[in-house]
């Protein structure tokens, strides 16, 4: 009887990666998130040149893609580490991870970016001294350097958050199961809530805030801004 019950629970559990529907949901989430950056550029003043904005947006989009993949991996891994029959809902773990990512994660990313800028100024790494400045003329290799630095920052923040979730996995898992209990018999509806309904607002806010500290400041600080007339190499 317990085997039958376990099988029934497994069938109703929300899975992050299990078919076409789940894949389409995640693609939709990405499109919604990127549209925020397009909307932000439409209303920003002064408006960034298109190439600069494209570099800024692609840097954040790729970083967000890496973070999303990390969130999926962490949620699935935590479910496997939990090991109990009542703890096999990947979506609840993803929701907890995502919530921390869009709150504590944004703060960690900002602190790590500021630390990177400080280190770049100290060691004279000119390509990393001003986020969003890609040289004059614009150079793809500067963008690539900033992109790799940003990915390293995102992954470092994810490791910190994942470690915190793992340390408190039992109470967080219990909270997640309680929170999504009303949707326990509707795994696809739960997936839509976890991956679309809730993230729409939280992801939009995260992208908006992150774009502000990834782009070059409008008011240039003499301590941080490299003279745009001076070549970077």
From TrEMBL:
Q: Its GO CC terms?
A: membrane
Record keywords, A-Z: Membrane, Transmembrane, Transmembrane helix
Enumerate the InterPro entries for this protein.
STIMATE/YPL162C
Q: Which Pfam families match?
A: STIMATE
Q: Does the keyword Transmembrane helix apply?
A: yes
Q: Which residues cross the membrane?
A: 23-40, 61-82, 94-113, 147-169, 189-209
Tell me what this protein is called.
Uncharacterized protein
């Amino acid at each position: 009887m317990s085997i039958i019950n376990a099988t029934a629970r497994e069938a109703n559990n929300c899975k992050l990666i299990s078919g076409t529907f789940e894949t389409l949901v995640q693609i939709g989430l990405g499109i919604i998130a990127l549209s925020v950056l397009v909307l932000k550029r439409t209303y920003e003043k002064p408006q960034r040149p298109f190439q600069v904005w494209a570099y800024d947006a692609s840097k954040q989009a790729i970083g967000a893609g890496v973070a999303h993949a990390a969130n999926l991996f962490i949620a699935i891994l935590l479910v496997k580490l939990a090991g109990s029959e009542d703890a096999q809902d990947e979506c609840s773990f993803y929701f907890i991870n995502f919530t921390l990512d869009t709150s504590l994660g944004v703060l960690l990313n900002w602190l790590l970016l500021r630390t990177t800028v400080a280190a770049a100024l100290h060691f004279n790494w000119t390509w990393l001294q001003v986020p969003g400045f890609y040289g004059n003329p614009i150079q793809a290799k500067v963008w690539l350097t900033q992109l790799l630095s940003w990915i390293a920052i995102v992954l470092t923040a994810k490791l910190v958050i994942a470690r915190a979730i793992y340390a408190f996995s039992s109470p967080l898992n219990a909270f997640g199961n309680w929170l999504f209990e009303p949707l326990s018999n509707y795994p696809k509806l739960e997936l839509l809530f976890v991956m679309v309904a809730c993230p729409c607002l939280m992801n939009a806010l995260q992208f908006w805030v992150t774009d502000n500290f990834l782009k070059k400041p409008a008011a240039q600080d003499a301590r941080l801004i490299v003279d745009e007339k001076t070549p970077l190499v």
